[in-house]
Design brief:
By secondary structure, the chain is mainly beta. The chain is built from one helix and 13 strands, in the order βββββββββββββα. The chain has a domain at 8-98. Belongs to the bactofilin family.
């Protein structure tokens, strides 16, 4: 899978910890831990990606592994190769056959309430990110 034309790419050998934000589409195929905010733009999480972050975007497509809450004002696509542990807020949701999703869905709201999350615990998050993909 290749990044969409015009989007910024984070390659599979790149590790980022902290806050990621921007005003353009982003393709992640590496490791990201923290927060990703692209309020008016799309995020694609590639098949090699391991993301441990709360995500705030317009549109989201997941092919890799994500642990954290997903907030979208547009659409969320969880592809067949994806593993997602966290809650989804807002957006239109599609989950392909063979994808793994553990969490709750709140299609009416783009914001979560503190203490109201079923996202994986820190130990579960670390295990998910370290497990090799089959």
């Amino acid at each position: 899978m290749k990044p969409a034309e015009g989007s910024t790419a984070i390659g599979k050998s790149v590790t980022i910890r902290g806050e990621l934000s921007g005003n353009e589409d982003l393709y992640v195929d590496g490791f990201v831990e923290g927060t990703i905010t692209l309020s008016d733009h799309a995020l694609t999480i590639g098949p090699n990606a391991r993301v441990l972050a709360d995500i705030h975007v317009k549109d989201l497509a997941v092919y890799g592994t994500v642990t954290g809450n997903l907030h979208a004002t547009g659409r969320v696509e969880i592809r067949s190769s994806a593993v997602v542990h966290g809650d989804i807020f807002g957006g239109r949701l599609s989950i392909e056959e063979n994808a793994t999703f553990k969490g709750m869905v709140n299609p009416a709201s783009g914001e979560s309430k503190p203490g109201n999350s079923s996202a994986a615990t820190k130990a579960e998050q670390e295990t998910l990110l370290l497990e090799p993909k089959a």
